[in-house]
Amino acid sequence: MTLACTSPAHRRRPTLLIVGCGDVGLRVAKILRGRWRLIGITSSPGRCAELRAAGIVPLVADLDRPATLQRAAGLADAVLHLAPPPLQGASDPRTAHLLQALARRGVVRRIVYGSTSGVYGDCGDAFIDETRAVAPATDRARRRVDAEQRLRWHCRASAPA
User: Fold this and answer.
1) What global pTM score does this model have?
2) Is-contact 60 68, C-beta < 8 A?
């Protein structure tokens, strides 16, 4: 008789690609370590030891240099995108570069994006949720709205029919 072992220890752990391994990314890694295989994009080779110590496999890449992101394609089941947009402009080419790289191979099942409440403009201390229409008042907020729109389009385009 043959039995298949289905205990959690014998199943493949899902892989999470953390894009933006700053304070929040490292906190998430601490929570998920052991349950997920963690890969983190860093543009600084000097941070690799810190990421390894946090249980994250470092991937040196730069969101401003699309060619460096090619290795990220097909690596993860899910992506946690915490990297900020560039400091100037009204769009977020960094998110565009990331999505182009991810689309090259396979489909990521889930993408979580850390945005900002600034996308809603000045709400005068009112309670808001994500159903509120965006009204960015600064270029920084416009860059975040651009990233949200790119992510929404990417997820709709890659969703199963």
Assistant:
1) 0.85
2) yes
